[in-house]
Amino acid sequence: MAIRTEEILLNVGPQHPSTHGVFRIIVKLDGEMITEAIPVMGYLHRGTEKLAENLTYTQIIPYTDRMDYVSAMTNNYVLVNAVERLMGLEIPERAEFLRLIVMELQRIASHLVWWGTYLLDIGAMSPFLYAFRDREIIINLFNELCGARLTYNYMRVGGVKWDAPEGWIQKVREFIPYMRDKLNEYHNLVTGNEIFLARIKGVGKYDAETAIAYGLSGANLRCTGVKWDLRKDQPYSIYDRFEFDIPVSTNGDCFDRYNLRMEEVVQSLRILEQAVEQFPEDGEIMGKVPRVLRPAEGEIYSAIESPRGEIGCYIISKGKDKPYRLKFRRPSFVNLQILPKLLVGETMTNLITILGGIDIVVGEVDC
């Protein structure tokens, strides 16, 4: 005779340390097994898209910092790039190099935050400390460049706010071999660890058809064998000048997503190595831009590859100094859609593994 158990409801969050922000999941449990999972978001909602309707285009830039707050540079870029395309502006080469360098440094910093916090989520303390030690080098570089450590407000429509200080490019050049060496240490410490492998290998699997149906992007899509990266497939800025690979795997589990993000750091270092060697010795950092930005009447959708996948900015202009409508496609929000599907039939232990493997930033989920 089968033992009958009573299902219980359990709140995970909204202050749970493994949710990477204020986020809540209501799970229905039958013993240790999850039978239903309902994400509850909105605790960080600040109405960014609505606020933008009453802000000039330059005033919107600091709001993008507060969305994905561990990848603020890429958020800055997707907005200014949309406005520049709408206005048909030309960007000076030195400014484009600075933008690309900070975006790839930001990708590495973002993946370091993910790596450290993911390992912390599933029970390892030391990797978190190592990751933040190495991320601090990037944060210090950003601090020298724009005077901020998290929310940078660095990019402007037409270029960038500040030029690189003397010796800054050399510091970026020195960081590249340092980070390569540390990546090897990361792999020796974690990637082959049998406890770590038992926790994530084969967990949270899905196929390419499912990934596409849910609109996933970034490592959450490429782990299913779909080779799609906007830096290659729809090149923007000056990415088409550099040689780099798009890592892809086929198992579609948490371990594949882990490996892809580690390999993306390798490819970002390749891009940086080429960029610092080709960096223009002089030049302007701002193009010819009117003092008051009034894009012509029309609409534009601009998308780039953020550390979490495709982030897009859709703008409708009525020819005024403020957008008529602004909408962001946030990869954290879109990628999170698959979570309820992945959790059914899993244990509570695997809930943390799967959620952390998706790599969300709740500020971007709620916007």
TrEMBL record:
Looking at the record, the residues that make up the NADH-quinone oxidoreductase subunit D domain are 121-294
Report the catalytic activity: a quinone + NADH + 5 H(+)(in) = a quinol + NAD(+) + 4 H(+)(out)
**Cellular compartments annotated:** Cell membrane
Pfam families attached to this UniProt entry: Complex1_49kDa
This protein's superkingdom?
Bacteria
- Chief location bin: membrane
Q: Which GO terms describe its cellular component?
A: plasma membrane
Keywords from the UniProt entry? Cell membrane, Membrane, NAD, Quinone, Translocase, Transport
Top EC class for this record: translocase
> What is the E.C. number?
7.1.1.-
Indicate yes or no for the key word NAD: yes
Question: One MF term in GO for this entry?
Answer: quinone binding
| Keyword Translocase attached | yes
Q: How does it assemble?
A: NDH-1 is composed of 14 different subunits. Subunits NuoB, C, D, E, F, and G constitute the peripheral sector of the complex.
The record's function comment reads: NDH-1 shuttles electrons from NADH, via FMN and iron-sulfur (Fe-S) centers, to quinones in the respiratory chain. The immediate electron acceptor for the enzyme in this species is believed to be a menaquinone. Couples the redox reaction to proton translocation (for every two electrons transferred, four hydrogen ions are translocated across the cytoplasmic membrane), and thus conserves the redox energy in a proton gradient.
Which PANTHER family does the record cross-reference, listed alphabetically? Answer: NADH DEHYDROGENASE [UBIQUINONE] IRON-SULFUR PROTEIN 2, MITOCHONDRIAL, NADH-UBIQUINONE OXIDOREDUCTASE 49 KDA SUBUNIT
Provide the family line.
Belongs to the complex I 49 kDa subunit family.
Name this polypeptide is given? NADH-quinone oxidoreductase subunit D
